[in-house]
Amino acid sequence: MFYHDGKLQYEVKVDKPNPQFAKMLQQAIGGIEGEMKVCLQYLFQAWNCRGPAKYRDMLLDTGTEEMAHIEMLATAVALNLEGASNELKDDIAAGSPFMEQVMGGANPRHILSSGMGAMAVDASGVPFNGSWVIGTGNIAADMYANVTAESAGRTLAARLWKATDDRGMKDMLSFLLARDTMHQNQWLAVLEELGGLEGNHPIPNTFPQADENKNFNYNFISTKIDSESKAKGRWSEGKSVDGKGEFTFDKAKPFGKEPNLGAPDPAGFAQKEQMSGGLKSKVKKIID
């Protein structure tokens, strides 16, 4: 069950409407780094959360807060579009400078589809994609996904902050940047509470390492074969980060055989040449 308040979480002001910036703000709403992703990600993780109730409550709190961020950004998009006429035909006929701006650099669907409002799309007009939402049922894996999401979101917010000279927009974005800072630390704090690097890893820590191939579990494999690889560092020597093994640096080499697939199923309608083994088989027979 959700409740709402008529007031925004933080003030949203626009000194001078800018339809191009409205288009850019759409990335922070419906883009892969945006607020719709983190909102739904945290909520689905909460709804599916098993274990201590505090993690479910925390995820619900933060997922609901992200709704407020969508609201703020949608308001910012609408304010940046204020002043553009809905009389599309009249504006085009009159050669409206604002219309030229919208059609020249911003999203025409802000006029055609949403009536000067935000949409559930990214800056290119691509609709939000629910497959971006990560909820594995493993709380440690989910926390790492959340750190990544907040890191990408804060990077986007920083770029948007840099892209505008509007004081109101900079102020709103500085608030969102601050909340991203908190959320990054929040998810990292959960990981620390769960046991840190050694306690959580390898994820899932419920799978017995005795059942994984110990010949390959802490080997860095270099696939650079033309010269000596420079990819050597903390990850290629010394004790593993989870404290359960030793890193090694190995050159890639095949341990399996060349795959040899059988003939196609006739019901699949492959070519005749494939049914008899194909050209490679015929050449081999000639050589033999």
UniProtKB/TrEMBL annotation:
Residues that hold Ca(2+) according to the record: 57, 61
Residues holding Mn(2+) 2: 66
Region (Disordered): 231-288
Cofactors that this protein relies on: Mn(2+); Ca(2+)
InterPro entries xrefs: Ferritin-like, Ferritin-like_SF, Mn_catalase, Mn_catalase_dom
Residues noted as binding Mn(2+) 1 in the record, renumbered to the chain: 35, 69, 150, 183
Compositionally biased spans, kind Basic and acidic residues: 231-256
One GO molecular-function entry: metal ion binding
Gene3D superfamilies linked: 1.20.1260.10
Alphabetically ordered keywords of this record: Calcium, Manganese, Metal-binding
Cofactor stoichiometry and binding remark: Binds 2 manganese ions per subunit.
Similarity remark: Belongs to the manganese catalase family.
Protein name (Swiss-Prot/TrEMBL): Catalase
Organism: Salinimicrobium marinum
